[in-house]
């Protein structure tokens, strides 16, 4: 028994040294040592002591492994072979978490996105789809690259990708049924975020609640194309309003057709019609909108797409805008249409304020406030 106790004491002394020499925020030394000494000095039934020794050995193995791995990462005292192996292990960090899009940050924080880590490798280059989210208004996909040992590129991942195509349940997405791909700013050059939407509010069909998406793309310097299957499911949990409220001003009729509020997106569909049935409008008079809650908080615009409706013998212009989500469900939403003011229209130069931002002019006659029913 004395020999065994000395060995145990020696092992615990080594563990204590590993713990103390490893820069970790939580200090487990005193807690572990006191717990061990307490159980060691207390007389207990043989079966219980046997059970505790097994637990102690497991604790020793787990703690030693964790501490040694921490030391490897921190000190870099590893062989070239092990370094190469570790580099091949993908880091499970969320691309959405570090996006500039508050809605995608919320998708990560609220565990609404699906973590996939589905990858394809050709010629030592790995393309990895890390996560996807679909909220009925937009699909967002996080993508990252991993180079083979010694490989690197000064180009960003989005610049390396070309011939990007999507299939929905095996059928190609094109200009008749989806918005086209928007590229969101990401955390670094090795990752990117693709976003797109359906055209259900602009004459196209809606995406299903669940579908299989296939991404096909080519990478600069890689001969074989990449194809990755991505399962997509609607997260649900949104407010869908169809107010169809209009305002008129001069030759313009402005209508709010639909509002969708989801945990990650505020989507607003507007229609602008020319009352004299003109087929064009001076681009200086083309409107944009800003969106506010009842307390005057303005939402940031993320993406949007517009389409002219010509199948009804008119030139109505329909726009889908996707903005940041509201932090809490508002009691009302106010939409304020505006136009830009130009210094020189022929050169496309805007008037600017002291901060260098374009000066806008609201059109109060077209302003609309929509109450939101919390039910």
Distinctive features:
six-stranded antiparallel sheet, 6 helices, alpha+beta, 3 domains, Immunoglobulin-like, five-stranded antiparallel sheet, 375 residues
Explain this structure.
There is one protein chain. The chain is an alpha+beta fold. The chain has three domains: 2-77, no CATH class; 96-233, Immunoglobulin-like (Sandwich); 239-371, Immunoglobulin-like, CATH 2.60.40.1640. The chain has six helices and 21 strands. It has helices at residues 2-21, 29-41, 46-75, 80-87, 102-109, 157-160, and strands at 114-122, 125-134, 139-146, 161-168, 171-172, 182-184, 191-196, 210-219, 226-233, 239-241, 245-249, 252-261, 266-274, 288-293, 301-309, 316-323, 332-340, 342-344, 349-350, 360-362, 368-371. Strands 10, 11, 12, 13, 15 and 16 form a six-stranded antiparallel β-sheet that branches. It has a five-stranded antiparallel β-sheet with strand order 1-2-3-7-6, with no helix packed on it. Strand 15 (301-309) and strand 16 form a beta hairpin. Helix 1 packs parallel to helix 3 (46-75). The longest helix has 30 residues, at 46-75. It starts with a helix and ends with a strand. The model is unreliable at 18-33 and 57-92 (pLDDT under 50).
